[in-house]
Amino acid sequence: MRHLASSLLLASLSAFALAAQPIQYVESRKIFLLTTRDSSYAMGVDLNGELQHLYWGAALWRADDLPAAVPRRELSSFDPPAMLEREEFAAWGGTRYYEPALKLTRADGNRDVVLRYLSHTMHDNALDITLKDIRDDIQVVLHYRVYPDYGILERSATIVNRTAKPLMLESAQSATWNLPAGEGYQLTYLTGRWAAETQVNHEAIHQGMKVLESRKGHTSHNINPWFAIDAGDAGEDHGSVWFGALGWSGNWRITVEQTPYRQVRVTGGLNTFDFAYPLKAGESLDTPAFYAGYSAHGFGAASRLLHRFEREQIAPGGLTSRARPVLYNSWEATTFNVTEIGQKQLADTAAKLGVELFVMDDGWFGKRNNDRAGLGDWTVNPQKFPQGLKGLIDHVNSLGMDFGLWVEPEMVNPDSDLYRAHPGWAIHFPDRPRSELRNQMVLNLARNDVREYIFGFLDKLATENNIKYFKWDMNRPLSEPGWEDQPVTDQRKLWVDYVRNLYDILDRLRAKHPKLEIESCSGGGGRVDLGILRRVEEVWASDNTEAFDRLRIQEGFTQAYAPKFMSAWVTDVPNMNGRSTPLQYRFLVAMQGALGIGANLNKFSAEDTAMATKMVATYKRIRNTVQLGDLYRLYSPRNGDIAANQYVAPDSRQSVLFVFRHSQEYSTAPPAIHLQGLDPRALYRLESLDNKLVERQPQLSGAYLMQAGLNVTLRGDFDSTAVILEKVQ
Ligand code: GLA
Predict the structure, then answer these.
(1) Same domain (yes/no): 90, 125
(2) pLDDT for 93-127, tens place per residue?
(3) 55 and 194 within one domain
(4) Residue among 521, 544, 567 whose CB has most ligand 1 atoms within 8 A, to mutate
(5) Pocket flag, ligand 1, residue 247 (CB < 6 Å)
(6) Residue 141 is inside which H or E element, if any?
(7) Ligand 1 in reach of 647 Cβ (< 6 A)
(8) Are residues 241 and 262 in the same domain?
(9) Domain end: 543, 578, 610, which one?
(10) How would residue 20 be classed by pLDDT, with cut points 50, 70 and 90?
(11) What is the CATH number of the domain that holds 191?
(12) In a domain? residue 155
């Protein structure tokens, strides 16, 4: 009863929050209150003109409730006021010893910067607050954007050098997020490596600093730029969770710092490692967008807020973008041995299964017969494709499928015509080794001639061929990041300009070819973040397509990113780790994202073909629910031998339950699975994929399904099932 009363209270508060102005400003006390349906965020200017954080948590509706920001007194000569305060965006200067959001050196060596409020502007859902150094005309514009219907706040900063002399930036962060004062917080974050991405970590936050970062030039498989913090008591469906995600596909950094004064601060933006960004007089630098939100209902609700925001506000086309088609990719079937005849054969079979987009992977260009040659030479190999790409594309199109093509634009093999013509284009320090990984080097995309070369060949490919989709790969990180053509002061701009030019190419390609779709791949999930997701339809979550490993990779992926973007293929067994799972299990795992098939279809038996055809057809019935609906992670594959995920359609008419059992011990029956997100008063018609549902009643109420739960008979190792629920009108 108490629970019901508090949810009613919250519901009415959310209604208040929605009715409240997204941005309120109280002039008399210089307080800003930003409000979404789920959360509020407040800051105020104190008597010294410093912008102090005031509140981050569940939605408020009345800015007048908030106390004015007040400067603190020193606790001791070792505990200065600045350390006790919660500055919104602190520059390194004065007596600040924590992680700053800005650090710079002036031409004369002076490094002290103290920022004070100068002015602000508000328009629609955006607020810009300008801070200025106490002496020099060094300004920082803090950008805030509220997404009231999505529960998300976006922050970034522009650092402007309005002095007459150059500055060297040493740290340029997007934002500092202050948690409510306290201790006992827990940090959740995603780590991994190639073929083992997005593993969920959950640990206590102690005094000191935890650094999440990439120094590799791309987002990286090792840590993903997302965090969630809870008060130590949150679960999938309960508890307060503060979360954030950074939109940057290069060197990024998020620090989680607990000060000695019971304060947790999260600061994130461009990585400070090897960072030096010069600003000449009049120049400015924009830092990446850092998105954040608050959920009072656990990690599941936090993910759902992010998912909806990403689908509707981040992804190209947003609400109007189409559902992801069922894709076939040739990589695991043919690796580099692609030929027109072989691809046509695969396409014939793929079309029969119901595939909608046929993607030819690596091996079609230059002298690319293995990974030792050809990267950089983006012309069709005439031995493999005597008619150019046209013969294959026309065939694919005649089967009713769109055509997609693999490219790896940023890379070069030393054994390529491109490298022989432009050895200086590969990133290197003069007279130093040029480390190769997978026999390849990285082109210096920060250079505008390289940018134009890459845009040029991609534009040509998309103009001359009916290509609907590029799978854009990036198969190694950067190393030896020299840029000898630049003055020494400008050489480290490479880290930032590389990513900007990458974004520029993607933006221009999309503008020129509005129907073109792009997948971001970086040896699997090495480039998944909210910066790249503004520019691509899908991401390849992992090169590991082994279904049981994938369940855990997908669990981590969906903490931060929507299933719609999660390209997931069914491939052959035994897989890379030696494990074999049944075809149905592999399909059901992949059907929880954007379904693809990467198996060698030439080896499919009649039974496999029948199963694949049935599963593709089933997927098409449920894909709007999976891709656009709400995800409830009911049982984690990390705990126990059952994993279950449920999706509920946006109009709540359909719901799909996926259940997996990976290693039965004893003859214990799986637990009852309590569904979520249904209408308790509605009836649902139940359709079991394979008769593994214990309940035999054709219809059950939402209340029963959520309170009593469903039972399935899953036995042995790697058993699986799915249940489709349709709301009865
Ligand atoms: C990377 C990708 C794979 C495939 C190969 C091709 O490893 O992640 O999916 O495209 O490159 O070389």
Answers:
(1) yes
(2) 999 999 999 999 999 999 999 999 999 999 999 99
(3) yes
(4) 521
(5) no
(6) strand 138-147
(7) no
(8) yes
(9) 543
(10) confident
(11) 2.70.98.60
(12) yes
- In a shared domain, residues 245 and 196: yes
Rounded-to-integer distance, Cα 330 and Cα 332, Å: 6
Mark whether 660 and 520 lie in a shared domain.
no
Dihedral sign of CA atoms 532, 537, 542, 543 in order: negative
**What does the DSSP assignment read for 515-579?**
T-EEEE-BTBBSS-STTGGGT-SEEE-BS---HHHHHHHHHHHHHHS-GGGEEEEE--SS-TTS-
Residue type, 20: A
In contact, 176 and 89? CB cutoff 8 Å: yes
Q: Select from 543, 577, 604 the last residue of a domain.
A: 543
Q: Given the residues 473, 529, 549, 630, select the one marked as catalytic.
A: 473
647 is in which domain, residue-wise? 635-727
Give pTM, 2 decimals: 0.97
Residue type for 708, please?
A: A
Given this model, what pLDDT does residue 573 score?
97
230 belongs to the catalytic site = no
Find out whether the beta carbon of 361 lies less than 6 Å from any atom of ligand 1: yes
pLDDT at 2 exceeding the cut of 50 = no
Which amino acid appears at position 177 of this protein? Answer: W
Nearest to 42 by CA among 72, 74, 20: 20
C-beta of residue 145 within 8 angstroms of C-beta of residue 154: yes
Is the CB of residue 523 below 6 angstroms from any atom belonging to ligand 1?
yes
Q: How far apart are CA 274 and CA 357, in angstroms?
A: 42
Is 587 inside any structural domain?
no
- The reply to whether 556 falls in a domain is no
* Chain centroid offset of residue 204 CA: 24
Give dist(CA 252, CA 203) in Å, integer: 21
Does 377 participate in catalysis according to the annotation? no
- Give me the pLDDT at residue 19, please: 56
Closest atom, ligand 1, to C-alpha of 361: 10
Q: Are 230 and 251 found together in one domain?
A: yes
Residues 50 and 70: their CA atoms lie apart, in Å, by: 9
Tell me the CA–centroid distance for residue 579 and ligand 1, in Å: 20
**Are 211 and 275 contained in the same domain?**
yes
Q: Are 650 and 661 in contact (CB under 8 A)?
A: no
89 found inside a domain: yes
Of 38, 529, 543, 719, which is the active-site residue? 543
- What is the enclosing helix (H) or strand (E) of 624? helix 606-628
Number of domains making up the chain: 3
Write out the DSSP string of 247-284: E-SSSEEEEEEE-TTS-EEEEEEE--TT--EEE-TT-E
Residues 137 and 255 in one domain: yes
